[in-house]
Amino acid sequence: MSCIEKMKYEILMEKMTFKESREFIEKNSDEVYYVPPGYKIFNDYYIIGIPPIALGIKDNALIFTYTKPCYGTFVLSIDSEDSRKEIYRLREVGKEKVHTPFKNGSSLENSKKPQTSFQDIWKK
Amino acid sequence: MPGEKALLMMGCPEIPIQTSIAMYLSHKLTNLGFAVTVAGTDAVTKLLKVSDSDGYYVKKLLNLDKTLEDIVEKRIDFDICFAFMHNDAGMTYASTMSAISQAKIYSIVFGRNADALSETIEYNCEKIVANDVHNPSRLKNKLDKVMEDIVK
């Protein structure tokens, strides 16, 4: 069990496919950042997902996917001191375009609005 | 091949053929000289521990999320990975594995929607697909051919 399940979260969508969840985040966030699979948030949650994985920001809340093997993908929102730290980190890393050490060379990308479709992003 | 590391990555165990195929594949790969690790959810590990209580077929059993965490942190990795899936979540886990690991991925797609699910796979892998739920024979035969190719 990751720390996510012990935090105060809101379920925005549940039992979706991963792509549906990504599209929900893209449509319902003020800012969207794309991170590679395995990107760590809240100290011990390594995000499971199909790249590019969208992380959304709405006010002080971080919106992200949470995949459970038997139930599909959930979209969760956390608004806390920890989410503010994660948002700060996302903006800083997104600004610096730091490359992550994954084998496909994928990096964290900032995609503030206007947002493009998943297909457009994937073609980059 | 002897000493190479193989991971069997297992998701939700609600489709009956998953557990029997995992035990079969683990045993076959072990006999071929692979060091086999099976990673699964709590339900998967409980099913395997009861079915194979002496650990005859499955030598090493780990938690799925912890295993992916260790791969991300570069504490472990594998040479080949057989990723079991019958739903979108299973495919999502396998896609993650493809992105974080150097392993060659074999996607084992089964269940009633296997064909449709296999068409959604976007990462590089070899697909082994069978629209079966209760009868593992067809999937077993396909995996036998894959293992023949591995030892060539």
Describe the protein in words.
The complex is a heterodimer of chains A (124) and B (152). With 124 residues, chain A is α+β, with helices and mostly antiparallel strands. Chain A has one domain (3-123). Chain A is 26% helix and 34% strand. In chain A, the strands form two sheets. Chain A has a six-stranded antiparallel β-sheet, sandwiched between helices. In chain A, strands 3-4 form a two-stranded antiparallel sheet. In chain A, strand 5 (53-58) and strand 6 form a beta hairpin. The longest helix of chain A is centred in the C-terminal third of the chain and has 16 residues, at 81-96. Chain A is globular. With 152 residues, chain B is α/β, with parallel strands linked by helices. In chain B, 45% of the residues lie in helices and 22% in strands. Chain B contains six helices and six strands, in the order βαβαβαβαβαβα. Chain B has helices at residues 17-31, 42-51, 64-72, 88-100, 114-119, 137-151; strands spanning 5-9, 35-40, 60-63, 80-85, 104-110, 126-130. Chain B has a six-stranded parallel β-sheet, with helices on both faces. In chain B, helix 5 (114-119) links the parallel strand 5 (104-110) and strand 6. The radius of gyration of chain B is 14 Å and the shape is globular. The N and C termini of chain B lie close together (10 Å). Classes of the chains: A alpha+beta (124), B alpha/beta (152). The interface between A and B is medium-sized, with 25 and 26 residues.
Quickly count the helices of chain B: 6
Derived from helix and strand composition plus strand pairing, the structural class of chain B reads alpha/beta
- List the secondary-structure elements of chain B in sequence, H or E: EHEHEHEHEHEH
Strand content of chain A: 25-35%
Q: Sheet with the most strands of chain B?
A: 6 strands, parallel
